[in-house]
């Protein structure tokens, strides 16, 4: 019984939140990685693109609920998601046309594109704040819990409860669907294959008749979709605050680089590495150990490697360490 | 020679435009506003010079401006504030000694491991033992003494305090300290290429901010340090001065306004002095063979290396110089504010805005960096009135009570982000060389 309690504790405080946050990071990191492999620059605006997606989802949700349509146990955002994905994609394509295309055609250094993406970041964050304001907004209007901790305790008779939020399970399910579709697209369809060929060797791909414009169109299509889904899911799980997405950029880069930038599988694994290490390092193991070993043997003081204040800093530390020690990441990605 | 004359004329024109803008603000808004904008413009100009020497002259992408500025501010606190005597008597001295010996011993141990022990597994085992031992030390000595410091008089001090020296001293010291930190960062990170270096420096600067925010014993963390001593007289003392009182009568200004004007003016003079010193030193350096070498490294690293230039060493050198300049400006900023607020350090305001200044001003040219600093900071402050004006213009046909119009006016403050992004994108597209181009040298 004690051991089961310990496991319940771990599942409740580490595995479920870690999976959710990891999914959100992985979706973001996939977007960054795909832009990086095809267009060869680090897109600092990705966090704001996610924020833009979440914002359009909220605006459309307001319109939908104005007409009184709802799918109650599920949040209304699910209905809004397809439309907001389309809007985010068109925003991405517009940005590409007016900001990045020129520098691509001119063959500028990739640092210039990076600086342009910072301009896009400023522009988008300003646009978002003008349109929806800087305040906190809750998206979730559906049921909050699938199983609440209290109910779980009543059913199983354990002292530790496991709670599963609806938003968490939606995040995990939608992420799985998105990732499966993405891999199917990249590996099985002709366009996906041409994208991979293009990222592998640009000149060879051009020679074999792959059209640059097509590849770039699909790249932004995928990026916009992923950014919108990731942003909306993040906003659904926590709540929508525009400034948090700016802080999300570095953890996303950390995830992409840890997994090996340019490698989609690496991006997913990197996302989970970041999210779980954040939780594992700042988790206080006192209660967990109290279930496993007799109380007399428990060491005094809190058994925490780093205080929770450093939670976000952990991803930066991992990022810097990986960049210095093994810049190619877990799965050998492309090195600049 | 003709081109030289032309470029000189161009930046003189740009300076004149800047001066004219301040005159406009002074006449139409108020001289107080004009001087406070000028002071921050000067600080921004120094920061952008720091980035310019790194990016414009040697092609290093340093996104760690925020971190260095914060370290500079921290120096301001640690130099100027009175020491917290209670903790110096027993607790803190111990901590500091341990901290420093740790840093040094860590580096020494690493060297020792590299030199004498060849067995891979033994190395790993030894490092694990060292890590565990240091964890034990942290638990047993660090945390109790940190708690002691943070709990002594936590409402007022709760940190180690400073050295009680004049705050102006903190400017050069901040430069030195940032130089040392930049040396450590550069040693480990400068091997990375452009994009990776950008991300790494951004990450490192975030880590620095996190440490300053959370280690309250160092500088009170998010509780802020207020009331730093000033290098210039206080307004209240000036108001009591008889000469100032008669001056205010003759100038037809209220005493309060005049005194704050004088204080701001004194700050401006100090800042202009620092700016001029840094500017002339750098101009000298850029025109010397050293500057030529740096440009050679920037333009083509491989051929520079083939000519026998040690590219890594040059990069490190310039990284240290630029970061030291940013540190100085960070200390100046804290001096101007009179307080140190770690939570105010945001990458958007410190890192990316400074980068916009450099790009807009014209990278590779110190005049350009100064003009960029002036122009962008001016624009950053004045974007809100401009945004309101634009919104009024667009919605001129709507009534004053129109919800749409009111909503937009309420959010006008965020127009500055939007406009700033637009400016950067347009600048990179239509005048990538900036307001003032880099001089053509033969």
Topology (SSEs and partners):
The complex is a heterodimer of chains A (336) and B (442).
Chain A: H1 2-39, H2 46-66, H3 77-105, H4 110-132, E1 145-147, H5 149-156, E2 164-165, H6 166-188, H7 190-200, H8 202-207, H9 212-237, H10 242-259, H11 264-282, H12 286-292, H13 311-325
Antiparallel strand pairs in A: 1-2
Chain B: H1 2-28, H2 31-58, H3 65-80, H4 85-89, H5 91-116, H6 120-151, H7 170-189, H8 194-214, H9 216-219, H10 235-240, H11 242-251, H12 255-287, H13 289-299, H14 301-306, H15 311-337, H16 347-361, H17 366-394, H18 403-410, H19 415-430
Structure, explained:
- The complex is a heterodimer of chains A (about 325) and B (about 450).
- Chain A is mainly α.
- Chain A has a single domain, classed as ABC transporter involved in vitamin B12 uptake, BtuC.
- Chain A is built from 13 helices and two strands.
- In chain A, strands 1-2 form a two-stranded antiparallel sheet.
- In chain A, helix 11 packs across helix 13.
- Chain A is globular.
- Chain B is mostly helical.
- Chains A and B meet through helix 3, helix 4, helix 10 and helix 13 of A and helix 8, helix 16 and helix 19 of B.
Number of domains of chain B: 2
* Largest interface chains and counts: A-B, 47 and 46 residues
Beta strands of chain A, count: 2
Q: Tally the structural domains of chain A.
A: 1
Number of strands of chain B: 0
* Share of β-strand residues of chain B: under 5%
Features:
heterodimer; A: 336 residues; mainly alpha; ABC transporter involved in vitamin B12 uptake, BtuC; two-stranded antiparallel ribbon; 13 helices; 2 strands; 73% helix; globular; B: 442 residues; 2 domains; 19 helices; disordered N terminus
